[in-house]
Input
Amino acid sequence: MARRRGGCCSRLPLNEDNARFCLLAGLILCYLMCGAAIFSALERPSELLARRLWDQQLANFTGHHRVSRKDLHMLLRQYEEANGAGIRVDALRPRWDFSGAFYFVGTVVSTIGFGMTTPATIAGKIFLIFYGLIGCAATILFFNLFLERIITMLAYIMRWCHERRLRRAGVGGSSGGEEPHSEEDSLEGWKPSVYYVMLILGVASVLIACSASTLYCTMEDWSYVDSLYFCFVAFSTIGFGDLVSSQRQRYEAQDAYRLGNCLFILMGVCCIYSLFNVISIIIKQTLNWILAKLACPGHCCSCPLRQQRLKRNAVQPAPSHCPAGRHRYTDASVETVCDSETDAGAGPDGAYGVGRRLSGEMISVNDFTASNKVSLALLQKQLCETAHQGPRQSQARHNGFSGGVGAFAIMNNRLQETSVDR
Amino acid sequence: MARRRGGCCSRLPLNEDNARFCLLAGLILCYLMCGAAIFSALERPSELLARRLWDQQLANFTGHHRVSRKDLHMLLRQYEEANGAGIRVDALRPRWDFSGAFYFVGTVVSTIGFGMTTPATIAGKIFLIFYGLIGCAATILFFNLFLERIITMLAYIMRWCHERRLRRAGVGGSSGGEEPHSEEDSLEGWKPSVYYVMLILGVASVLIACSASTLYCTMEDWSYVDSLYFCFVAFSTIGFGDLVSSQRQRYEAQDAYRLGNCLFILMGVCCIYSLFNVISIIIKQTLNWILAKLACPGHCCSCPLRQQRLKRNAVQPAPSHCPAGRHRYTDASVETVCDSETDAGAGPDGAYGVGRRLSGEMISVNDFTASNKVSLALLQKQLCETAHQGPRQSQARHNGFSGGVGAFAIMNNRLQETSVDR
Output
């Protein structure tokens, strides 16, 4: 692991990573600028209209009732303060009975934070900080474990479908001695495409949001668009609080509605969290692609340093035999999509694709496994045996590593491989 | 990778993972219940007081000005609606000018969602859904890349400190032929402790929160506790919106304050996000420990199934030579802490600890590398060569894998290793 002192190119991957980080920061800034301009254009007229309307309503009231502006402003300030304690003209559910407090802590640990209920006492505020610190961390872990479970499940299902498809194709085609072997091989190297996973999660999210919206439409008398907007705001944990479900004092079938509300929000948050993470893989691929384009615009790199960097950190534009729209990187983190080409048309021999890929100096673990066709089961056995025997064996991954969870899986990678990277 | 059909115990790791997931869900539920009870006890009296106060204020006003309750309620409802459009008695900054909209989109993509500004038009609401989908995913990627950068940096600094300490100890002690070798070895296997990383991130978060609170105290006239509370709520992306910075129409040094506000929130969110993720590692370790205790309470497991499970998924109670409070797992995701024992007192020979660890059937990658002392640089070269030559080599990790980011690093693990796990 003492790669740090290994050579001049050992520091380059960090630069690559930093470049990606800075590029992303720049792009997000642009995205924010554009968003601000668009929202400003969309909402500014409505704001001015609302202000005019309110001024008129205020003028009407003071004119009609001969109340001084000053007194009225005083009352409205008092009302604002009462609002902060969760009081409205139309009675809402109590804020701090057990069920209200439960809803509140749910919005805290999930970081939704609608703000329909907020602690008013100093003790409550201080307790919130410590409560939230543990609660939010536990919920992040929960979301990451959920992500792990859902990806495992999806991969299992998709693998099963892929297996069935292959078997059918095997029945339809020639059943020589070579056929079953290559079929098994392509299954071994097979992984689900990140695009399919995104599609499935997207569909699931839309289904949950639509079902929840139907419920909210009926129970809260919101329009369907408002309900969908609420669902997105709640599920993405933004939680503005302009619309909050289950706030009235009484509903029909109140307990069932409250339970349904909680379950929908829980499912929605988990699904959208997974979806965000899958989308962020694709964003990262795009960043890698942009970086590769920037480092090597059009023609083959003339700068030796750049070439070295490309070789070293494996962000490479797609070779010519890569299907359009999909790009190959030797970066293992994005390799998944490439490998899924087996599924996406390259045929059962797609798993043999390593021979075609050796344009980069390094190959990814995925490629390596796919090309070598070593069953992990066998490998683990071997690994276990060699570990008992002696040193100087090559390093290997086994599925204990799959226990890594979420955002900190990378941290473990980092903590483990930092000395390699820098 | 065709481990799925390999034997009866191939399904057990899933059960282990599921058990961890269910245990966490149960614990979070208990945590929510306790939190709800405590908050309810803390805040209920204040709510009742606020309600009595408001009723009295309302009675005073109607009594004094001879305004009917009905008319007043109508006005207050109108005021609530105006509130939704961002209108207050005391003039606030315009909601939807460019800077206001920029603040708004910042709270969207970071999922803080204060709710001080919310889209009122249907077009704005629909646009928000699509805008937030990309924006939140990009920001999750940003946070994960930040996490990766910060962990890399911390590990680098801590490694440097550790190196210096070792070198000093080397100068002070005997400088035989064995000494420098074992020193280098312990550096090779060395990784920073997750507890130290948590401590550093915690201190950084507290420093940022305190500096920001001092700023808010001065500029917003909040109390220091309120400012700290606001910092936590904003940095953790809960974003209630009961307190929101930079909302008045005018401040002294307004532009500088707005910039400072944005920077503090950005730094705070990144730090707290990293802190949450580090804490969640520790929570996961605790879960593993609880699961191990549940599977093997006190005495050595009598049930053969349990024993098999323990062997297979490597959640094991600490062996007797493990320092108190720290537990060894062969699960690589938590191995980091164990390996850091090199740093935490086990001495330079800690990296040789594999011999002591072989109580489980499987060993982790970390153990394996640490014991085998193969420089990753060499390994990669080897890997590269063998890839060009032929099949049936063992599978290996190289540092392209370190490009995996955040929550989806695990997804790549999942997508890659699912067929092993199930």
